[in-house]
């Protein structure tokens, strides 16, 4: 297997291609009364700062949550890493949406989100989504119509590491893009990458880039592949806390987010 490293000076979004919370049974949607802080946010803010980029799994998850809640006026501002997402949301006094937990990674909690909680303290947790991750191969419609053979695949490194079974016995060159899966789809769609290249990522990327079409679905290694996301407000800590304290904060947020997750999104 050949690998080509592509370096870009852009804040890498954390792709969670595998994973997350294996939940048993049904939980009822929380009926707790919103605080005055939450009510004020709902009345004045329609922007949510979202980890990663447009077309990412984070985008897919937050869109599902907004749709389930019947919120059609929400604007999304994509902020890259969890730390930057928290910073932007805190500065704007609005909500952040980040990946929280992953069943496959060691320790399960998302390392980049742990790091963000060292600097930011959770205030109110307002929602969650347990998203099944379906990984797809996308190529340009033109390359398919012309019968161009697939020779290269581009995606976030974590995504490329989660399709080993599919890659087996295929002589494909891998193009790791730290920017993420959406960046890979963009570069394939606009011709930055050659016509013999396919992008690995969310199936919804063909909606973001009409030049693309989904060639293969469900190519991820794990059939039980989920990521659990949370929506919350945060504030900057007066002092940076330890990793252990940040993990405790994240664990509490996960518990609260599950309680705030609509039954249909568990």
Condensed summary:
The protein has 266 residues and is of the alpha/beta class. The chain has helices at 36-44, 57-68, 82-92, 111-119, 141-145, 157-160, 164-167, 181-189, 205-208, 243-259; strands at 2-3, 47-50, 75-78, 95-102, 120-132, 135-140, 152-155, 173-176, 197-202, 212-216, 226-236.
What does this structure look like?
The protein is of the alpha/beta class and about 270 residues long. The protein folds into 2 domains: about 35-130 and about 225-260, 3-Layer(aba) Sandwich (D-Maltodextrin-Binding Protein, domain 2); about 135-215, D-Maltodextrin-Binding Protein, domain 2. About 30% of the residues lie in helices and about 25% in strands. The protein has helices at about 35-45, 55-70, 80-90, 110-120, 140-145, 155-160, 165, 180-190, 205-210, 245-260, and strands spanning about 1-5, 45-50, 75-80, 95-100, 120-130, 135-140, 150-155, 175, 195-200, 210-215, 225-235. The chain has a 6-stranded mixed β-sheet with strand order 1-8-7-9-6-10. Strand 2 (about 45-50), helix 2 and strand 3 form a beta-alpha-beta unit. Helix 4 packs across helix 10. The two termini are about 35 Å apart. Residues about 1-45 have low confidence and may be disordered.
């Amino acid at each position: 297997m050949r690998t080509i490293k592509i370096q870009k000076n852009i804040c890498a979004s954390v792709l969670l291609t595998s994973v997350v919370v294996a939940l048993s049974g049904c939980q009822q949607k929380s009926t707790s009364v919103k605080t005055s802080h939450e009510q004020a946010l709902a009345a004045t803010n329609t922007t949510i700062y979202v980890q990663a980029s447009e077309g990412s799994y984070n985008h897919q998850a937050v869109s599902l949550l907004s749709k389930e809640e019947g919120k059609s006026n929400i604007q999304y501002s994509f902020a890259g890493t969890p730390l930057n997402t928290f910073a932007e949301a805190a500065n704007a006094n609005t909500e952040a949406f980040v990946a929280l937990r992953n069943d496959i990674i060691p320790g399960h909690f998302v390392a980049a989100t742990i790091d963000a909680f060292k600097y930011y303290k959770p205030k109110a947790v307002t929602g969650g989504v347990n998203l099944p991750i379906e990984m797809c191969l996308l190529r340009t419609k033109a390359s398919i119509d012309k019968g161009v053979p697939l020779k290269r695949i581009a995606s976030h490194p974590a995504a490329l590491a989660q399709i080993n079974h599919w890659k087996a016995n295929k002589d494909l060159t891998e193009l790791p893009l730290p920017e993420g899966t959406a960046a890979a789809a963009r570069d394939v769609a606009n011709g930055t990458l050659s016509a013999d290249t396919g992008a690995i990522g969310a199936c919804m990327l063909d909606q973001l880039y009409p030049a693309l079409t989904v060639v293969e679905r469900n190519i991820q290694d794990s059939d039980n592949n989920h990521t659990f996301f949370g929506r919350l407000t945060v504030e900057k800590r007066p002092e940076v806390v330890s990793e252990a304290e940040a993990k405790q904060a994240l664990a509490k947020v996960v518990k609260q987010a599950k309680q705030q997750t609509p039954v249909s999104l568990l």
